[in-house]
Specification:
33% helix; 17 helices; 2 domains; Polyamine Oxidase, Chain A, domain 2; Amino_oxidase (chains A, B); alpha/beta; Related to Polyamine oxidase FMS1 (chains A, B); FAD/NAD(P)-binding domain; homodimer; binds flavin-adenine dinucleotide; 532 residues
Chain lengths: 532, 532
């Protein structure tokens, strides 16, 4: 059944940031000293034809863009950002970055600017809302977890006497800002874990490709094997079995995605860094492209912890234009359409009960299951636009969207419906243009895009929900989820030899590049401590 | 020695909000049921000729002003604000309030507006600084406490590579904003306790006099005795002594501040609500106007806990003008003068050590001891201006200042040097006028003030540091202070019968009106639970 067999000490599955960091650590702490060895002591098996995983810098017509992760978050405690900064101080090559946090602009369906308004004072009440949610969960140890949507409604109901009509209305938009952090709808998001405690500013990385490429130079190039989709990990328990497999402890089967050939890789340790969504497939006996079969099956702890976690679907669209605009504000946040009737519904509410919540629910955008059959209107969803004019000086917009919009749009894109995509975002973009000061003359540059929106040259759409090696964006908490369980069970591992790393296996920096980075370091360290 | 003797069950010393709340609770929970009693069962002995204590609404020419506390803080958990709101909902008289939190304006010595600036991004780095301080104290259980000034310098030193020159400079101003919360200099303030975790918005109370007057109607009027300065509290330990004092447990001596007559008040319980600063005098054998002698002396716990706490000196000046201006922004924050050389000093710093800190210290405003001999220039101090045009629509400014400026200015005022005060604030006010859009024609209205500043009709200056019944503003933490100790020792009390209330006797809402309010309720409850 296998076409060839190779042997190594440690296998890393997946060459995202977690895998890269694990390899860098293993090399620097240990294998750089082994001058005599010829065959690689570590192998990274990567299914795709590129390294980086969810770090993916794509080329557009105007510039480059990170269509996956783009920011260094929490810079007061971000170890990757610090590593990059140390290189810079030593005048070694390091990626660039820019502190792009600014005051941004919030606008609604009519294009009205909402923030920094002396009368509306939206940020002031938004702050209070966030404090309210924090205090609620602090108030009782066993405070029942509900959706973020319900927590917002609880605040609005309880404090309506201290809020203006406009504040009641627009908090239903500004509160949804949080969806763009998680890639998930506020009605699905856990009220307890939705709000994040940012530890310092964010710095936009320009670009993550440079980080990925730099890290890949810090260990031998022949450690990386692309096009290698792992499909099975078998623990060799039996002594006979081990002897017939050159005394190794693990047997890993990997399929070459170009020619379908199966290679058997014998090794002693493995660090599995595939995304949570892909790993979840291992729990069930359903064949799927990226699925890894574990023999024996994943342990009960891991199985159980997967029942208390979900996965988001952050997506991006990049809109490239052919001429500059005025505004250098980096962030433009669109609230989604808000039904005016919500004000009366809140004002007239007598009790905060199921009936009341149903009423409010019916006045807000419905959630959808993962299989979307209807046509979705992006006007109903909050969106974040990053203005490249304020970052690289190029007339491009990077738009962030979330579940269920991401799945819907990425599917349209896979069907090559780019014109449809432009058309449905057109009303929002036209409103945004007012704030950008973009006034392109009506001469078309001949592209299909510019017939829809003057000056639009190109669009690039992400593919994370469709790609079998990501299946969405990153870990997310629904009500009743507990993120600690999965990260604990995976940190404990399947066994001493079958280890896990990645953004979903760690609490500090969960979902983030630097969390994945730290988890890679952790597992490299674990193996070195126990094995060498 | 005593001129007369009266008898009651419970004495409350001080008729501030703590004393008022204690009386209201005692009446509502217990004494309103006693229809037969003739003599008052509770007596509030108040030294001043008015009730309210540090709640003090004064009349100006344009309007009324709270020269003491003005805001309901932390409205998500403020029980006094809630009590007022409940009355309002029942259409009973309640004081008015306005949510005056807005985006405000920050300006520097040159009058330049600093906030909401796309390039400076001062609020963004100010936020990061605050997060840094929080994380530092979280990072180790035994993190050494230092001044807030040093924490700010630590942030600037450590993160200077990520800050622009302008950010380094102006953080030295915006960070001092905190001085106006504590009434104390950043070099004296505890780094650990300086930053507050605001629980919801602030509402400006219009006016606290109405709250005070309303509360005073909720128990019999004859409970209050003004002009009654308590000078001694004696526990009657000895059985004989008690018998000769009508079987009461406590003997309290109080002096009539108008005619000097001494009254002996016999009672069983006392709640002492005098300010921390006044109570501190009881520890030492030095005569002073508001001092109460305790026989026996205050217990060792209380004595010790006073060694780990300080007191601030927030002060106010009200400037009244004769014609309106444009701006309705409520808050204008002046950063104090900032020496440009601080940028180079930070950039060139090699190590964060004593030498470095001395250098930075010498470039910033020095601290002073309480006895100020030099002339102070208000230009060197951060100040907050509240714009009444945005609150009541009257052309007045309420300015908040802090230690050591407060002591200096209040002393000038006591010497009737109002013109001097106007003169030294003139440059700052002229800069502020640009932001207010105030352009008064140069016709003087004949007052001494308007010769200094066109259109200025009147100024009103607070007196808290000089008044023997306040001696400053409210509790404050210096490095190495621990606010929990004082509030615990006072909550435990001198004994079961000698109790304490007031803003300095409670952790939740320490320093605030609502903290004092809660402490009054707590002590009334304690006596009712143990005694009745
Ligand atoms: C749109 C988007 C925006 C984001 N924005 C940010 C941001 O701004 N800041 C931030 O900190 N984080 C952001 N994130 C999250 C961040 O990208 C991830 O947390 C991080 O990159 C995950 O790294 P990883 O190594 O854990 O996983 P990955 O990068 O996914 O690496 C896993 C690797 O495993 C490979 N693989 C999968 N299955 C197999 C198999 N069977 N065999 C072999 N190989 C396999 C994959 O191809 C992949 O290369 C974003 C993510 C998305 C999708
Ligand atoms: C300038 C300033 C601004 C402030 N701003 C705010 C604000 O905006 N919001 C907020 O929440 N808090 C604010 N505070 C704090 C707030 O005013 C106090 O926390 C609160 O009013 C204290 O109430 P209390 O009852 O504890 O003390 P007090 O109000 O001081 O009452 C104590 C009483 O004891 C009396 N007394 C003293 N000695 C004797 C004696 N020997 N015999 C008899 N009586 C005596 C005093 O005359 C006084 O009436 C401010 C304070 C100041 C000074």
């Amino acid at each position: 059944m296998t076409d060839s067999t190779i042997e190594t000490k440690i296998v890393i599955i997946g060459c995202g940031i977690a895998g890269l960091k694990a390899a860098q650590e293993l090399y620097q702490q240990k294998f750089c000293q082994d001058v005599v060895e010829t065959a690689p002591q570590v192998l990274i098996l990567e299914a795709r034809d590129r390294i980086g995983g969810r770090l993916y810098t794509v080329d557009g017509l105007n510039d480059r863009y990170d269509i996956g992760a783009a920011w260094h978050h929490d810079i007061l405690r971000n170890p990757l950002f610090q590593e990059e900064h140390e290189l810079k101080k030593k005048n070694l090559t390091a990626s660039k970055y820019i502190f792009d946090d600014d005051y941004g602009i919030i606008f609604d369906e009519m294009g009205t600017k909402l923030n920094h308004d002396k009368d509306l004072k939206l940020e002031v009440v938004q702050n209070e809302l966030e404090k309210f949610v924090e205090l609620e969960y602090f108030s009782e140890l066993e405070y029942p977890n509900t959706s973020y949507f319900k927590m917002v409604q609880k605040y609005l109901f309880r404090y309506k006497d201290f809020l203006t009509d406009a504040q009641i209305k627009y908090l239903n938009g500004s509160a949804r800002c949080i969806e763009l952090w998680h890639g998930t709808n506020w009605k699905k998001l856990s009220g307890k874990y939705a709000q994040m405690d940012h530890q310092g500013r964010n710095a936009m990385c320009l670009f993550y490709k440079d980080v990925v490429d730099r890290m890949a130079t810090e260990f031998p190039l022949d450690w990386i094997k692309l096009h290698s989709q792992v499909c099975q990990i078998k623990a060799l328990k039996d002594k006979q079995e081990r002897i017939s497999n050159r005394n190794r402890n693990l047997e890993i089967l990997t399929k070459d995605t170009k020619n379908g050939k199966i290679t058997k890789v014998l090794c002693d340790y493995v660090i599995v860094t595939i995304p949570q969504s892909v790993l979840e497939q291992s729990l069930y006996d359903v064949p799927a492209p990226g699925r890894i079969e574990f023999i024996p099956k994943l342990n009960q702890d891991i199985y159980d912890s997967f029942q208390n976690i979900h996965y988001g679907a952050l997506g991006k669209i990049i809109f490239e234009f052919d001429s500059a605009w005025e505004s250098k504000h980096t962030r433009f946040y669109y609230t989604g359409a808000i039904n005016n009737n919500i004000i009366d519904a809140v004002r007239n509410g007598q009790a905060f009960n199921g009936e009341y919540l149903n009423k409010i629910d019916s006045l807000t955008t419905p959630t959808y299951n993962n299989t979307i059959t209807e046509q979705l209107d992006p006007q109903n969803y909050p969106l974040l636009f990053v203005n490249y004019m304020g970052i690289t000086g190029k007339p491009s917009l990077v738009m962030l969207m979330q579940d269920p919009l991401t799945s819907y749009i990425e599917k349209l894109n896979a069907q090559d419906e780019k014109a449809t995509i432009c058309n449905i975002f057109k009303p929002i973009l036209l409103n945004l243009f007012k704030h950008l000061g973009y006034a392109h003359a009506n001469n078309h540059n001949g592209s299909i895009y510019s017939e829809i929106l003057p000056g639009l040259k190109n669009i690039i759409v992400s593919n994370w929900t469709i790609d079998p090696y990501s299946l969405g964006s990153f870990t997310a908490c629904y009500p009743d989820d507990d993120p600690i369980e999965l990260s604990l069970s995976l940190e404990r591992g399947q066994s001493m030899r079958i280890r896990f790393a990645g953004e979903h296996t760690i609490m500090d920096g969960a979902g983030c590049v630097y969390g994945a980075f730290e988890s890679g370091k952790r597992e490299a360290q674990y193996i070195l401590n126990n094995y060498f």
